[in-house]
């Protein structure tokens, strides 16, 4: 299937979007597999919007193919190749474990001695009687917290390894050593510091001379170095509500746990060393047999799998696998070996936490290499299609099975799944006309509609009618909000009567309340066994910070308090804005249909109860603080007005009506908005050189009002708030706020409108591009 696409994709490399650039190989036996992988990698890279991907296949001591896809830089001028440099995250832990094992072989460290034998001053608060050992650390059984208070994954201050480890003295062990697997970057940093103190050299320098140089890993280092920066891929961070931004580049305090920079071929040389029983091109790395000892799960699960010493030990189609994945700001890496077959693969990507996608590529590569070895036909990758809109509409809604729930929500052209047992919200697509999860974060969860309901994860769920959620408990209202940094924001929200933490952009955890200000992470996920502790302003009872898993996150100011109008500081005075608008003209267009603007107020007599109006730009109650209309005009093109009336009628049956804030907007006002607004906020105003949908009479800004009280309902953000809270998919707020936001969207989109990606209140009517840009209200 993909092999037939490969020539076309490679040909595209001669134009503006190369599928693959300079490559190593492929070796003759792997030509067909390289073609298959080329097409699949490029398909997944485009589908998941990964700027750059590099791959290397290893057959024993030979890199049989290595290639790059996409571009290293955001301007798309440097094609990615095998030598593109990536931050490889937790793949670093393998090198730290080997550095420890080298010292064990020399008798300078003891895997089973208390860690204080290597670090005499190391301590934590309220320690358990059992000592922490290096064996436990590398098998993630130390019981230490996931992150240190200083130098954590979140901390951009680059404090250094000594300060990072020292800060653990302010933490308490989460579990007794050996009791339970708890993945810990903090613990591996302690192991790296033990190496540093033992050899009396900086950790990064020691690993360079003891491991990287003997392996010929000349494009690798712990921490950034000038000679690698020119080849470093410019990576992307992303959020579930549609935002993207360049990844931060600070070095981590938890250096031994996640600070390696490398390339796919360099990591391929590392895999060759594994297949040579510890021998590298430049000499011995480990004594024969040491690696096999590191690959024995220290606390095996029911299948005999788990963490060995640094290595994650798993299986693929009955074949043993060893290796590690990595994820660090804007980057994802998969490094997996079949040690018994001496085959391996490295896949690196320049987009945050797309490990599930890279895992699929790696598994296809390994299965393909096994097939080449056995002389079998190559395996073919599964490729999904968009769900048919009819099927998506049938699946959309809320589903319940006892205390479990599944939500399937239409967001634009996509169907998104969230459920009570999962961390993520995931995109649903179609495979052979059956719905399947295919998302950068996960793949392969299947579901089906049957007579009895929705079959999902082995359970049958029944459709439930949406009901208005209970109000958020008053004592939690002051906790809901955003905390932390721009590059890594923690969200606290309320959902279905629970307080929920959304951490590291994607991981969503229901919390258990311990007391007024203390909550506990659930027993699964990244932070199990740890707590969140809120600090409140004593007068307002609003949280000013939260310490989550030992890391302090300060509250972020996002938007305005409910009931307060968002304002900007305009770049020009009102008089100057009017002068600039009067001196300009809208873009010239031809071939548009005649305008047929109707006054929405004239529709009012036909609706019972009617539309309500709060046209903000006829008042000073707007983001500029000045009146821009001479009267509260509200016009739409006739088809849009009729569709709006139908949406209003649907909402009336549910106890709500539509409150109109704006509709047709003269082009001159759009020009004033643009000239007044700072560049960083212009996602919330239209570019006058293109004209807006409002200028065409096909956009409307509105919200809901309660028929019983006549009051506007509370949404996650206020109208015209220039903040992330205004996104129609913003994950924060309360259940009731999000429920009302979704009710409005469903009613409007059922009648041909589409919500604007940055503003929950802004809806564009289908066919808007066929109408002309207009300069004034009808007379």
Compact overview of the structure:
This protein has 779 residues and is an alpha+beta fold. Helices cover 23% and strands 25% of the residues.
Order of adjacent strands in the largest pleated sheet: 15-16-17-18-19-20-21-22
The count of helical stretches stands at 19
What's the overall geometry? globular
Distance from first to last alpha carbon: 61 Å
Total count of strands: 38
Multimerization state: single chain
> Nearest-angstrom radius of gyration?
29 Å
What's the pLDDT, averaged over the residues? 94
Which structural class fits the helix and strand makeup?
A: alpha+beta
Main β-sheet: number of strands, strand sense, barrel status?
8 strands, antiparallel, barrel
Query: What is the beta-strand fraction?
Result: 15-25%
Q: Which runs of at least 5 residues are low in confidence (pLDDT < 50)?
A: 1-21
- Proportion in helices: 10-25%
Written overview of the protein:
This protein is α+β, with helices and mostly antiparallel strands and 779 residues long. Helices cover 23% and strands 25% of the residues. The chain has 19 helices and 38 strands. The strands form nine sheets. Strands 15-16-17-18-19-20-21-22 form an eight-stranded antiparallel barrel. A seven-stranded antiparallel sheet has the order 2-1-14-13-12-11-10, with helices on both faces. It is globular. The N and C termini lie far apart (61 Å). 48% of the residues are buried. Mean pLDDT is 94; it is low at 1-21.
């Amino acid at each position: 299937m993909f092999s037939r696409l490969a020539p076309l994709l490679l040909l595209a490399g001669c134009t503006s979007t190369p599928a693959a650039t300079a490559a190593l190989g492929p070796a003759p036996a792997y030509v067909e597999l390289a073609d298959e992988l080329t097409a699949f990698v490029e398909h997944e890279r485009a589908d998941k919007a990964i700027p750059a991907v590099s791959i290397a296949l290893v057959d024993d001591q030979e890199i049989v193919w290595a290639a790059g896809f996409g571009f290293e830089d955001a301007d798309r001028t440097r094609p990615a190749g095998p030598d593109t440099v990536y931050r490889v995250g937790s793949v670093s832990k393998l090198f730290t474990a080997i550095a420890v094992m080298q010292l064990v072989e020399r008798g300078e460290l003891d895997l089973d001695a208390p860690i204080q034998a290597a670090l005499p001053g190391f301590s934590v608060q309220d320690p358990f009687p059992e000592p922490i050992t290096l064996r436990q650390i590398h098998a993630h059984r130390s019981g230490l917290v996931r992150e240190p208070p200083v130098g954590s994954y979140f901390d951009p201050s680059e404090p250094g390894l000594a300060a990072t480890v020292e800060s653990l003295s302010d933490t308490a062990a989460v579990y007794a050593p050996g009791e339970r697997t708890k993945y810990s970057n903090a613990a591996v940093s302690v192991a790296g510091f033990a190496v540093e103190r033992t050899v009396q050299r900086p950790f990064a320098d020691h690993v360079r001379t003891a491991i990287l140089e003997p392996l010929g890993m000349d494009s690798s280092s712990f921490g950034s170095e000038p000679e690698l920066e020119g080849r470093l891929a410019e990576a992307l961070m992303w959020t579930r509500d549609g935002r993207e931004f360049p990844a931060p580049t600070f070095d981590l305090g938890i250096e031994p746990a996640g600070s390696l920079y490398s390339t796919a071929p360099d990591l391929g040389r590392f895999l060759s060393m594994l297949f040579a029983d510890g021998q590298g091109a430049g000499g011995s790395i480990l004594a024969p047999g040491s690696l096999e000892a590191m690959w024995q799960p220290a606390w095996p699960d029911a299948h005999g799998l788990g963490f060995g010493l640094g290595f994650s030990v798993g299986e693929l189609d009955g074949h043993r696998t060893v290796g590690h994945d990595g994820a660090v700001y804007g980057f994802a890496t998969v490094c997996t070996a079949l040690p018994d077959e001496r085959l391996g693969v490295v896949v690196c990507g320049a987009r945050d936490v797309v490990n599930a996608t890279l895992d699929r590529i790696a598994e296809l590569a390994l299965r393909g290499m096994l097939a080449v070895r056995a002389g079998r036909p190559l395996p073919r990758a599964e490729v999904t299609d968009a769900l048919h809109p009819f099927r998506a509409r049938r699946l959309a809604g809320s589903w319940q099975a006892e205390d479990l729930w599944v939500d399937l929500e239409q967001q634009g052209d996509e169907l998104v799944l969230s459920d009570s047992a999962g961390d993520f919200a995931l995109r649903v697509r179609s495979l052979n006309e059956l719905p399947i999860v295919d998302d950068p974060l996960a793949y392969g969860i299947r579901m089906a509609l049957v007579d009895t309901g929705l079959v999902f994860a082995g359970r049958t769920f029944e459709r439930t009618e949406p009901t208005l959620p209970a109000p958020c408990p008053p004592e939690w209202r002051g906790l809901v909000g955003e905390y932390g940094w721009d590059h890594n924001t923690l969200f606290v929200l309320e959902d279905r009567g629970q307080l929920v933490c959304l951490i590291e952009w994607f991981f969503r955890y229901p919390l258990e309340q311990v007391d007024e200000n203390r909550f506990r992470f659930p027993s699964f996920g990244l932070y199990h066994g740890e707590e969140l502790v809120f600090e409140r302003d004593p007068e307002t009872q609003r949280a000013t910070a939260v310490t989550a898993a030992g890391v302090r996150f300060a509250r972020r100011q996002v938007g305005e308090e409910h009931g307060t109008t968002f304002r900007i500081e305009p770049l020009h005075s009102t008089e100057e804005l009017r002068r600039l608008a009067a001196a300009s003209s809208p873009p010239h267009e031809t071939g548009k249909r005649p305008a047929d603007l109707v006054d929405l107020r004239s529709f009012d007599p036909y609706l019972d109860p009617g539309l309500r109006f709060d046209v903000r730009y006829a008042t000073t109650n707007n983001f500029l603080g000045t009146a821009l209309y001479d009267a509260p005009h509200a016009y739409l093109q006739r088809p849009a007005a009729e569709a709006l009336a139908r949406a209003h009628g649907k909402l009336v049956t549910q106890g709500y009506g539509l409150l109109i804030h704006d509709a047709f907007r003269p082009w001159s006002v759009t020009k004033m908005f643009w000239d007044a607004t700072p560049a960083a906020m212009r996602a919330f105003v239209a570019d006058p050189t293109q004209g807006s949908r409002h200028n065409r009479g096909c956009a409307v800004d509105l919200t809901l009002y309660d028929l019983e009280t006549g009051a506007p309902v509370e949404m996650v953000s206020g109208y015209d708030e220039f903040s992330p809270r205004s996104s129609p998919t913003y994950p924060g707020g309360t259940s009731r706020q999000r429920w009302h936001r979704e009710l409005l969207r469903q009613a409007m989109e059922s009648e041909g409108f589409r919500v604007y990606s940055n503003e929950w209140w802004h809806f564009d009517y289908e066919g808007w591009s066929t109408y002309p840009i207009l300069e004034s209200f009808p007379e």
